[in-house]
Amino acid sequence: MINYCQDILKKNNRMILDEKLLLQLGKNEDYRYIEIEEAMTYLDDDQRELIHLKYFQDIKIKEIAMMWNCPEGTVKTLAFKALRTLRYILEEKGEKKNV
What we know:
Number of helices: 6
Number of strands: 0
Low-confidence stretches: none
Oligomer: single chain
Radius of gyration: 14 Å
Structural class: mainly alpha
């Protein structure tokens, strides 16, 4: 998975883990989905729930904000932080596999 992600990042010349990549990784190939799910166990409950709602169930930010009774900006910030944490976890796991 890390090699695949690194190829994508080299192609785009920037570090990014966005919703299109998450959807592609989560739905197209089972082993990548399993790696993401495993990495998500290290997230806190709110981060894990937010990623499932937004990226795996395709629920819009506005709807999540209404469900959580908070501003849309807060949901966007939490989503950004959750993706950043997930990216870090996946990178760490990849480095350990390559050692």
